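Consider the record:
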Amino acid sequence: MLLPTDHGQAWRESILERELLVEKIVPVFIFFSLWLDGWFFPLLLLPFLYVILVESKNLSWLGFGKKEIRRSIFLGMFLTVFLIVVYYPIFLYYAGLQDHKLLTLTDIFTDIIWYPLYEEVAYRSFLLVHFTDFKASSYQKNLSINIFQSLLFLSVHTHHITSGMPLILIPVFLLGFLNGIIFQRTRNILGCIFSHMTLNGFAILLHFS
């Protein structure tokens, strides 16, 4: 027979198990599905619906809010300038390998709007918000999870290796890693989206010019 203290212990354990399931385990599977497929557009709704319907939180928890928005945008602008400086000489180095073609509306939508939004929500917003320790100064833990998401972000850009332009992975990694720092410091995703969109826009204009 369970004593009252046993009931209390069992209740606390069940609460902890549910919190672990909701806050850590299920988000891992959601992120894994986002990492596997970036083309199925409705999949982007999954992290938003999970946060709203299951975790009972609003979108500001994912970084879509007014808090730290100016700081986030400023850091995003600074990062954009830095990455353009890094990317431009790499582009010139591979200029002879570029496959020039006409710029289409599909190119504009996917490269400048869709992928920056999708990847920032998946890699920086949804993943980092569930595994970054925002309250304590857990520098080593936060650095590790940021490097981890940056490497996963890098893994979906390996087509640059097969196309003979592996050095492009340098600004790609820096974009993922530094945007991760911006999100961890501000918990606002808008600056990250801005820097990603602007850098992609700069790259696509160079590529199609």
